[in-house]
Design a protein that fits this description.
162 residues; mainly alpha; 9 helices; globular
Length: 162
């Protein structure tokens, strides 16, 4: 358990990792329930520590277990749970992440490395790293417009064939 700023800074600056902040489809109530479940586990671990295990007991397997505690089998066990580099795409495929735009576009928009660096000392760090969310809304709008234009063009082509 750590501060969001510290966790992100550790990964972006010291480990030189890419960090992504994805919008989920959880309702505020589901998010609160999930947070409560995670904190209950944190308190449990404070009294009864466990060893980390790369396959059986890691951050991603634990998160999947917490999601499944809200709705059984929401995250079926899969090799993508074991490899964090693939877990975001798996969550996207399961419909746990906003999937109104293609995953590659979402991944690009969700990357917060530049924002985290720029706003590290800001008192509004959490809001600042989520500054790209408007880009997701714009991308969804553009995609819908394109789909509508294709449908309209297709209908016009059919009319010309008649």
């Amino acid at each position: 358990v750590a501060d969001e700023r510290d966790l992100i800074r550790l990964r972006t600056r010291h480990r030189d990792d890419d960090v992504y902040v994805y919008r989920t489809v959880a309702t505020p109530q589901q998010a609160r329930t999930l947070f409560g479940d995670v904190m209950q586990r944190v308190n449990q671990l404070a009294g009864q520590p466990e060893f980390y295990h790369s396959v059986k007991n890691n951050c991603t397997t634990n998160l999947a277990a917490h999601v499944n505690s809200l709705k059984a089998e929401r995250v079926p066990f899969n090799w993508q749970v074991l490899l964090p580099g693939f877990s975001a795409k798996y969550a996207y495929d399961l419909g746990l992440l906003d999937n109104q735009i293609p995953f590659k576009d979402l991944e690009m928009i969700a990357n917060v490395n530049d924002l985290a660096e720029r706003h590290f000392d800001s008192p509004n760090f959490s809001q600042a790293i989520r500054g790209n969310r408007g880009r997701i809304d714009r991308a969804v709008s553009i995609q819908r417009r394109r789909e509508s234009n294709r449908t309209t063009a297709g209908l016009q082509a059919l009319e010309r064939w008649r």
